[in-house]
Design brief:
A hairpin with a 6-residue loop joins strand 1 and strand 2. This protein has one helix and two strands. It has one domain. The protein has 75 residues and is of the alpha+beta class. Helices cover 16% and strands 8% of the residues. The radius of gyration is 12 Å and the shape is globular. It starts with 29 loop residues before the first strand and ends in a 22-residue tail after the last helix. It has a two-stranded antiparallel sheet with strand order 1-2. Bound molecules: zinc ion. The site of zinc ion has 8 residues, from loops.
Amino acid sequence: MPLVHPAHTTMDCAGCGARAKHALPLSQRTYTCTACGVSRSRDKNSAHVMLVRAGLYPGGAQGVRPDRPQGEQAA
Ligand SMILES: [Zn+2]
């Protein structure tokens, strides 16, 4: 039994939690969020989304801390 539902992990933004309207084609290796503009490896993004869902990264999505410092995404 998976701890984290795998659906949409390649569509959700790990930065702001927004969900892309369309899944990325497999050929596209970079996830770019249309909501906050974050651009990162799709694998890293989906892994991050899963961590957030598992509760291992409380500073992530869900919009609970909108003013959190940006990690790997320097302004
Ligand atoms: Zn975003």
